[in-house]
Amino acid sequence: QVQLVESGGGLVQAGGSLRLSCAASGRTFSTYAMGWFRQAPGKERDFVAAISWSTGNTGYADSVKGRFTISRENAKNTVYLQMNSLKPEDTAVYYCAARSTPDLLGRHTRVVDYDYWGQGTQVTVSS
Question: Phi then psi for 90, rounded to 5 degrees?
Answer without folding.
Answer: -80, -10
